[in-house]
Amino acid sequence: MNLLVTGGAGFIGSNFVHYTLDRFPAYGVTVLDALTYAGNESNLAPSAGRIEFVKGDICDEPLVDRLVAKSDIVVNFAAESHNDNSLRNPWPFVHSNLVGTYTLLEAVRKHKKRFHHISTDEVFGDLALDDTRKFDENTPYNPSSPYSATKAGSDHLVRAWARSFGVQATLTNCANNYGPYQHVEKMIPRQITNVLIDRKPRLYGAGVNVREWTHVDDHNAAVHLILEKGRIGETYLIGSGDERSNKEVFELILELMGKPRDWYEHVTDRAGHDLRYSNNSTKIRSELGWMPRYTDFRDGLAATIAWYRDNRAWWEPAKLAVEAAYATKGQ
After folding, report:
1. What's the pLDDT score for residue 315?
2. Does residue 121 form part of some domain?
3. What angle do CA 27, 29, 34 make, to 5 degrees?
4. How far apart are CA 219 and CA 292, in angstroms?
5. Do residues 275 and 144 make contact, with C-beta atoms less than 8 angstroms apart?
6. 310 within some domain
7. Please, which residues bridge with residue 33 across strands?
8. What CATH number corresponds to the domain at position 175?
9. Distances (CA, A) of 179 to 23, 289, 318
10. Number of domains comprising the chain
């Protein structure tokens, strides 16, 4: 089985590559990644020598066509994915998330290959803090940022190509991920690395916004189950069921790192900051038997903190630039 993993040098994609080779060592894996700021070839170091790495853009039609032709399955992690960056400059999100997905779909359509598309629960918009509902596979789309809008558009392209052209596609919308190799611009690694350099974490607004946190290995286990047993044309929502306010996450990070639980600063809230995300993952649990390994967020967060503590050489080169960018916005 030959897998083409697009965006495989990014956070979730690189973890997917390691997960795949650890559990399916006979698989051939090709990684296609443009190595924009969020992609880092060093993320793939544990699997070096066992993969083919190709630096390139998923919008490059001849390159994509060549790589898809020699693959059995394409798993698309490639995306621009940071809300704050999409507010500053939406174009890279349109380019990668819409044009790139279109390019991949045309290639898998031409060569009749299996396709799995990774998306986000942010396409559904947000829920009120006091709402008892959760997102499910039938929730209407209501994106609120250029990032989530372009991901919503890419989801619609996948469904249209499956219905109109018979592309053998599946799709997942996952809750917030955390774990190793996540860029230090993201919330959890940013605050962990702030503490590691003895700088107070920065909490948006009052920190009441709620997220459902899923460990990246649990996400990738779900993707493999779908590749093995998922129904073609179907969408599956992935989520651990563990919801925390941002303030609670900050306090737990500080507790686990030996700091007072109130050792953080409040900064200006993000524009259009979604209030709450929550996924109903009953479908993938009941149909495919998926269960998260990290059912306790505290355990997964402790393991993540340990990884960043042990891998300073991986994150330190990017830290200064990230904090300088946030400083220009008072964040």
Report:
1. 95
2. yes
3. 165
4. 8
5. no
6. no
7. 55
8. 3.40.50.720
9. 18, 23, 17
10. 1
pLDDT band at 255 (very low <50, low <70, confident <90, very high): very high
Position 315 in a domain:
no
In a domain, residue 30? The reply is yes
Question: What's the pLDDT at 325?
Answer: 86
Residue 90's pLDDT band (cuts 50, 70, 90): confident
Which residues span the domain enclosing 131?
2-179+214-241+277-293
| φ, ψ for residue 124, nearest 5 deg | -85, 0
For residues 174 and 122, give the distance between their C-alpha atoms in angstroms, rounded to a whole number.
Answer: 9
Residue-wise pLDDT for 97-140, tens only, equals: 999 999 999 999 999 999 999 999 999 998 999 999 999 999 99
CA–CA separation, 36 and 39 (whole Å): 5
CA–CA separation, 302 and 278 (whole Å): 22
Residue for token pair 């390139």: 56
Asked if 267 and 202 count as a contact pair (C-beta separation under 8 A), the reply is: yes
Whether pLDDT at 164 is above 70? yes
What are the two backbone dihedrals, phi and then psi, of residue 108, each rounded to the nearest 5 degrees? -70, -30
Q: Which residue has the tokens 């399955």?
A: 73
Give the chain as a 3 state SS string. CEEEEECCCCHHHHHHHHHHHHHCCCCEEEEEECCCCCCCHHHHHHHCCCEEEEECCCCCHHHHHHHHHCCCEEEECCCCCCHHHHHHCCHHHHHHHHHHHHHHHHHHHHHCCEEEEEEEHHHHCCCCCCCCCCECCCCCCCCCCHHHHHHHHHHHHHHHHHHHHCCEEEEEEECEEECCCCCCCCHHHHHHHHHHCCCCCEEECCCCCEEEEEEHHHHHHHHHHHHHHCCCCCEEEECCCCEEEHHHHHHHHHHHCCCCCCCCEEECCCCCCCCECCECCHHHHHHHCCCCCCCCHHHHHHHHHHHHHHCHHHHHHHHHHHHHHHHCCCC
Q: Is 289 left (phi over 0), alpha (psi -120 to 50) or beta?
A: left
pLDDT band at 37 (very low <50, low <70, confident <90, very high): confident
Return the active site residues.
121-122, 147
State the average pLDDT over residues 160-184: 97
